[in-house]
From TrEMBL:
It comes from the Bacteria. Pfam families: Trans_reg_C (PF00486). PANTHER family: PHOSPHATE REGULON TRANSCRIPTIONAL REGULATORY PROTEIN PHOB (PTHR48111:SF40), REGULATOR OF RPOS (PTHR48111). Keywords: DNA-binding, Phosphoprotein, Two-component regulatory system. It comes from Parvularcula marina. This is DNA-binding response regulator. Gene3D superfamilies: Winged helix-like DNA-binding domain superfamily/Winged helix DNA-binding domain. Residues 114-213 form the OmpR/PhoB-type domain. One of its GO terms (molecular function) is phosphorelay response regulator activity. SUPFAM superfamilies: C-terminal effector domain of the bipartite response regulators. One of its GO terms (biological process) is regulation of DNA-templated transcription. GO terms for cellular component: cytosol; protein-DNA complex. Residues 114-213 bind DNA. The keyword Nucleus does not apply.
Amino acid sequence: MAGQIRLILLEPDAAIRAALVEQFAVAGEFHAIAAADVDGLPDEESSLSHIDVLLTDEARPETLSAAAARGFRGPVIAFRAGEGVQIRLERPCRFSTLAATIRSALHDHTRSEDARFQLGPYEFSPAERVLAVPGEEPIRLTDKEAAILRYLYRAGTRPVSREELLGEVWGYQSGITTHTLETHIYRLRQKIEPDPSEARLLITVEGGYRLGQTNA
């Protein structure tokens, strides 16, 4: 199972907001943080760089600007038309339709040229296969290195087994072993860790790996 999809739900109607939060919780694959508007989000959500999707009643320009100012770079789904909306859903809609729309929007976004994720001090562009820090030379990644980081990012704090990572990145190709993965992990650490022997971003756990702090 992949990591939970992290989303912000902005809905001024308290009853609708509570009902959606409950449905997201029951579904299990979503972690929803809800408020009437951006200013109503919890203090611990001062940075939105780790949020995957913004779901809002109406995508007002000031709402999108406030979310962007906090680091949000993901797709926007709205129930009412607004400037900057990539996807609009008509109400009423089934929760299954909403969930499928969120999955599809995130799938498309993570493969777009615009996708950016915060990994520790780095801004990660999977499409360009680059890790960047302002004022420093960008770190170039191979296809497989970028795929490894992207999958671990999507897993959130959940440890990913070596077998799962092999299957997702290499597709269980004949002849590919965990040694191949370990070699790629070693090379990645040489590129991204200040001290590869004391990894803080790409962490080994029992049976596999996970990412450390993903938003600086």
